[in-house]
Amino acid sequence: MENLASRLEGVRLLAFDLDNTLYDEGTYFAAALDRIAPRVAVLSGGDATVIRNRFEEILAAQGKHYHHLFNDVLAEQGLAVEEHLAGLLAEFAAVSARLDLFPGVAELLVDLRATCKVGLITSGREAVQANKIRLLGLQGHFDHVIFSSTLSENKPGQMPFRMLCETLAVEPTAAVYVGDNPLFDFKGSGEIGMTTIRVPNPEFDDHVCPPGWDARFRLAHVTELRGFLPKMEKAVARS
């Protein structure tokens, strides 16, 4: 059986997904819907609590990666999607609530940067993802950040992963990608030769992955990477 410790010994780049890998994305959605539900209620004359609950129902049924959440609620409320969608998306990008990294993540990122290069590849709209990075206090924690939705090929395609490796001058075989979402995180990264690690997200507990779409390794929490730091540091010292 392949050993993760041996795979990490020669690593020169550790790259991460953002949502549900480094923090709980549900906290961002909660803060966003606190802003958006009252706005929809004013526009439609509906009840803000009922509308807020409807957002939650759709998220529970479809998952946070569902791209038509606002479209569905606007249509249900009898509002023209083409007239109001841009306003809701702007509200979604303007969340100002405090967000918290998972415990130990900030310290892990600092320690990793003393050992290897650290990158971030995140999909979703650039304005939203940049706002999350700001609210989480992650500015300056990465050697390079890629907003893959701005590229001609988003996750799960190879381009974002290949671009990160090329930008940081690291061969994919010496790079690792850590994420939570088998729909987006591991196909392209694995195809170019990166070591892939999946951390838990209950949304995908029962998801059956087609061949080549899941990660090669799994950890119970992203901070378990800390246990591999001594071996990584020894490899760096020998190089």
How would you sum up this structure, described in words?
With 239 residues, the protein is of the alpha/beta class. It has two domains: 4-23 and 99-238, Rossmann fold; 26-93. The chain is 44% helix and 10% strand. The protein is built from ten helices and six strands, in the order H-E-H-H-H-H-H-E-H-E-H-E-H-E-E-H. The protein has helices at residues 4-8, 25-44, 48-62, 69-76, 81-93, 105-113, 126-135, 159-167, 187-191, 229-238, and strands spanning 13-16, 117-122, 144-147, 175-179, 195-198, 217-218. It has a six-stranded parallel beta sheet, sandwiched between helices. Helix 2 (25-44) crosses helix 3, helix 2 (25-44) runs antiparallel to helix 5 (81-93) and helix 4 (69-76) packs across helix 5 (81-93). The chain is elongated. The model has no long low-confidence stretch (mean pLDDT 94).
List the helices and strands and how they pair.
Elements: H1 4-8, E1 13-16, H2 25-44, H3 48-62, H4 69-76, H5 81-93, H6 105-113, E2 117-122, H7 126-135, E3 144-147, H8 159-167, E4 175-179, H9 187-191, E5 195-198, E6 217-218, H10 229-238
Parallel strand pairs: 1-2, 1-4, 2-3, 4-5, 5-6
Helix pairs in contact: 2-3, 2-5, 4-5
CATH superfamily of the largest domain: HAD superfamily/HAD-like
CATH architecture verdict of the largest domain:
3-Layer(aba) Sandwich
- Specify Rg, calculated over alpha carbons: 19 Å
Average of per-residue pLDDT values: 94
